[in-house]
Amino acid sequence: METVIAELREALARAGVILPSLGLNPVSYAHRTMPPLVELGRCNTETARRLARALGER
């Protein structure tokens, strides 16, 4: 799971997007029947714009 988060963090950084709260959701990780979730967290409006632009380029 940490590998996936690291890959996402690196891909976002290449697009100029930093999500400080990016990490593993601890509640879902402890759940037995649900797969673990990645917590994207909150970001400021400039980061949201960068993320929208990065997604729009695909």
Would you kindly provide a written description of the structure presented here, covering whatever features stand out?
This protein is mainly alpha-helical. It has helices at residues 2-14, 26-30, 45-56; strands at 23-24, 38-39. It contains three helices and two strands. A two-stranded antiparallel ribbon has the order 1-2. It is elongated, with a radius of gyration of 13 Å.
Count of distinct strands: 2
What's the story with the biggest beta sheet? 2 strands, antiparallel
Average pLDDT across residues?
90
User: What gyration radius follows from the Cα positions, in whole Å?
Assistant: 13 Å
Helical content stands at 40-55%
Taken in chain order, the helices and strands follow as HEHEH
Strand content: 5-15%
Distance between the termini: 25 Å
**What is the SS-derived class?**
mainly alpha
Biggest sheet strand order reads 1-2
Extract low-pLDDT stretches: none
Q: How are the secondary structure elements laid out?
A:
Layout: H1 2-14, E1 23-24, H2 26-30, E2 38-39, H3 45-56
Antiparallel strand pairs: 1-2
Task: For the structure shown, list the relevant keywords.
58 residues; mainly alpha; two-stranded antiparallel ribbon; 3 helices; 52% helix
Provide a concise account of the structure shown.
This protein is mainly alpha-helical and 58 residues long.
